[in-house]
Task: structure prediction
Amino acid sequence: MSGGKLNNRRRMSQALSRVANASVVETLKNQKELPEETLYRIGITGAPGSGKSTIISNLVSKRVDNGSRAAVVAIDPSSPLTKGSILGDRIRMDTVSNNPNVFIRSIPSRRSHDGLADNTADLLWEMEGYEFDEVILETVGVGQAEYSVRALVDTVILVLLPESGDAVQAMKSGILEMADIYVINKSDLPGAELIAAEINEIVSRNTYSSDEWKPCVLSTSNKTLESFNLLNNAINEHREWRMKSIDKASEQRSRVRYQVQSLMNRRVEELLEIMPLKEFDGHPKEVYEKLMKKLLIK
Amino acid sequence: MSLEGKRILIAKPGLDGHDVGAKVIALALRDAGADVIYTGLRKSPDYIARVAVDEDVDAVGLSMLSGSHNEIVSETLLQLKELDASDIKIFVGGTIPKDDHAGLIAAGVSGIYTSDMAITDVLKEIELELRNA
Result:
């Protein structure tokens, strides 16, 4: 990644594209051995416009301050009609986009509807061999039900806005139960304290034993850049807690489970896309059987 | 025809701060199926080349109204070459005097699209250029 290794950067970049663009069959053919240890992964999720990219920009500039290297994967939605996308997260990462120790890859969500993109699991896997110290994953702007990011990363950060009171009500049984760190962003706006109190109340309703992680609630604002120090510290604390407490085998299991599920979902979509329209004439049972047969063909 | 699966970087080098044209072409490319990355204003050629490599794009569109297109284009091509990325195509858009077109093409630019062209024609030409890639 240093100046002298720029050719490697191009090779890495092209390798990532190959993984991102691979069909299910190609993906399975090219998968390597399961890595014994994976890079530390931070996932940032939250509603559209909540400031995920800006937070990543401020956060990553602190995390690479000591010379370490970070990779950012930022996902934006694909148009279901034209398949095209505007991948705009990078513009808001100005603080770090010029830092050669930071690698940013923008990817479209394609067929995925779970806040991530096609092949996200394999893409993160591919990031392993390139001397990064950690990976930051930014999801598509999400509502309440898209919490797949939980399965793929070590630390989940949910970004909320001061005016998102109603959204919080709707999220109670969903993404709101999945985060390790809650961030009220743009906390200089009115309503920030109220929403922080509300989240704190939801978090405190659960009881945590001494070996469990109690999610923390923080406020950040672009106007007080020190607020990102607190977030940075909270991430480090969570990371330390994980090292002592996480059962790696069960975590590996849930990652593999997600990966298999997303490959299977996509294989079904691939097959449905090429199925001639007339094959949908008939009872759902028959169509289902037809699809099952196609799935079994290697 | 479609640009589905193609990655295109729209870049604003130089000092002019007018990016309406860049945004119009970015949206048109998206509607033609491309994945479009926009750099934002006032980026240097070495920054643009590095983003082109990191994002592994098929083409870079340089939007320029400042009159310094000859210098910016040759510097961007040079930076791409240093990164082993001369295969990434360069398109140029904006205010480019006719007299400069031949020189830019000779330098390695794959297409020049001025504001008097219909956007559908621009898309058609880009699709043709990238289809052979």
